[in-house]
Amino acid sequence: MTEDVPLIPETAPFSEAQRAWLNGFIAGLFSNGSAVGRQSLATAQSPASLPEISVVFASQTGTAEG
Fold first, then answer.
1. Torsions phi, psi of 21, nearest 5?
2. Do 30 and 9 meet the contact criterion of CB atoms below 8 Å apart?
3. Please, are residues 24 and 30 in contact by the beta-carbon 8 Å criterion?
4. 39 Cβ contact partners less than 8 Å away, ≥ 6 residues apart
5. CB-based contacts of 3, cutoff 8 Å, min separation 6
6. Whole-number Å distance between alpha carbons of 18 and 42
7. How does residue 66 score in pLDDT terms, banded at 50, 70 and 90?
């Protein structure tokens, strides 16, 4: 069974580059191929075995979030 992939119409308020990106993104969502390295939810690592990471950011004006 073939599913039609929706496309962003040319009349949508996007540039040609934005429309191309969105169409590719939507095509990826509708694809039924398997990606290299993709893990199913059943085989994904548990949160306890994942390394802890810190995300740090700052600003020059001192308005960075804690």
1. -65, -45
2. no
3. no
4. none
5. 30
6. 35
7. low
Region of 44 on the Ramachandran plot (φ > 0 left; ψ -120 to 50 alpha; else beta): beta
DSSP secondary structure code for residue 14 in this structure: S
In this predicted model, which residue has the larger pLDDT, 64 or 51? 51
Over residues 6-57, the pLDDT tens digits come to 888 999 999 999 999 999 988 888 887 655 545 555 555 566 777 888 887 7
In whole angstroms, how far apart are CA 19 and each of 29, 30, 31, 43?
15, 16, 18, 35
The phi, psi pair for 49, rounded to 5°, reads -95, -5
User: Alpha-carbon distance 43 to 34, whole Å?
Assistant: 15
Query: What is the model's pTM?
Result: 0.45
